[in-house]
Amino acid sequence: MNMKSIKLLSLLIFIAWAAPSCVFLEDRLLVGMTLVRDAAAHGAVCLDGSPPAYHLHRGFGAGEHNWLLQFEGGGWCNDIPSCLDRAKTHRGSTRHMSKWEVFSGILSNNAYLNPDFYNWNRVKLRYCDGASFAGDGKFDNGTSLLYFRGQRIWEAIIRDILRKGLATAGNALLSGCSAGGLATFLHCDNFRNLLPLNTNVKCLSDAGFFLDIRDISLNPTMRSFFEDLISLQGIEPNLHKKCTQSFAFPKWCFFPQHALKYITTPFFILNSAYDVFQFQHGLVPPSADLHGHWNRCKLNPAECNATQIDILQGFRRGMLAVLNPFYQDSGRGGMFINSCFAHCQSESQDTWFADNPPRVHNKTIAEAVGDWYFNRRPTKEIDCEYPCDNTCHNLIPPPPKVSQIIP
Ligand SMILES: *[C@@H]1O[C@H](CO)[C@@H](O)[C@H](O)[C@H]1NC(C)=O
Ligand SMILES: *[C@@H]1O[C@H](CO)[C@@H](O)[C@H](O)[C@H]1NC(C)=O
Ligand SMILES: *[C@@H]1O[C@H](CO)[C@@H](O)[C@H](O)[C@H]1NC(C)=O
Questions:
Q1: Where does the UniProt annotation place the signal sequence (predicted)?
Q2: How far is the CA of 366 from the centre of ligand 3 (A)?
Q3: pTM higher than the cut 0.90
Q4: Does ligand 1 come within 6 angstroms of the Cβ of 356?
Q5: Which of these, 51, 126, 128, lies nearest to 87 by C-alpha position?
């Protein structure tokens, strides 16, 4: 047995002995899972029928009555085979999930690493429905059974946390990354309405601003993918009511760019203008690059040729164009659109706030979000275009498992 496994073993013995709700492993905060057991009575279950879950680390001191909720992300499943596969993994079942989650970045409890939210009650909502916590339906053909209950999971978790102190929150922030960032657009006003009028409620989406665009071969890849998702999982009735009543194409209220103007709760949009997920799956999906001409560019922007860079600059301009009304609005919105090849920058310590984090106009993401949340100063930061920003931590994932995310 080596040192590492001895450490791990003693950690496990310690957990079994003390049954704490959190532990520290090599300076990382690990927070234990809470299953929402009575959720099944409300039909709120994961794809495979297992109970939904969250991880809660209690606030303290001045943050004792403040609440940060973070939706976990992780793609979507938009047809029966992909949802059946997903139901057998940690993305579709709490039975297969890690029971301990690292709390870092915006979830960290360390004042030096997370200056504005470290002492809040911080909650990570586990993602097991495959539809950004917004579906409501079921598939049952006698041999296969799947639950599409994201909306009910959201409601069940909120009910549980309201009882644990959220109902008397002074400050509250609903956040999330990727599919979880999209969930913050979908649930922000609903969250506002569930809390007392005197609670200060705001929402933050990280890497959730999925654009309604055509890919490089002019196919509406994202639309087709979301269209299947919306109908399979029964999402449309749960979209923002004001948007679905006013917008000519109600189901496209699923796209943040169409729903945004109907959201009345103060909102912060954190996104890279070259979001690598959207680049790899929405702008240049494998179906639009059958010969793999983009493979090297997808993994390293320095390998993109001039034509490819032009296309990426067009993507950025498109994002800024649809964000322009929000940018011009003098209301309580905030934004941080940087030019790093990244996807999700609030959960990782490297990008949130650390020794050398990405900056725009010399401001870190944690400072920008804190300044906006506490009304310290208006915060709408837009970075100059690639490759001007030398503070980036380009976070490009290994080649995607295409079949699980976008066909
Ligand atoms: C039910 O659906 C699954 C997945 O699509 C399929 O493999 C199976 O054959 C279906 N069973 C029946 C009875 O149609
Ligand atoms: C860049 O690469 C693409 C894909 O291989 C190719 O079609 C295009 O002509 C190249 N452009 C330049 C300027 O080399
Ligand atoms: C940028 O911010 C850092 C710390 O926040 C500060 O030390 C530095 O002087 C600032 N640089 C400029 C050019 O304002």
A1: 1-18
A2: 15
A3: yes
A4: no
A5: 128
Is the CB–ligand 1 distance for residue 144 below 6 Å?
yes
Q: Which one-letter DSSP state was computed for residue 247? A: S
* 53-57 and 28-35 strand pairing: antiparallel
Identify the three-state secondary structure at position 131: coil
pLDDT single digits (tens) 2-26: 444 444 444 444 444 455 677 876 6
Q: Which two tokens mark 223?
A: 């639309």
Q: 196: exposed, middle or buried (C-beta count within 10 Å: 0-12, 13-18, 19+)?
A: exposed
- The residues, any chain, with a CB within 8 Å of residue 324's CB and separated by 6 or more, are none
Q: What is the pLDDT of residues 331-389, one digit of tens each?
A: 889 999 999 999 999 999 989 997 889 999 999 999 999 999 999 999 999 999 999 99
Q: For the chain, which domains are there?
A: 26-382 (3.40.50.1820)
* 178 noted as active-site residue: yes
Q: How far is the CA of 400 from the centre of ligand 3 (A)?
A: 37
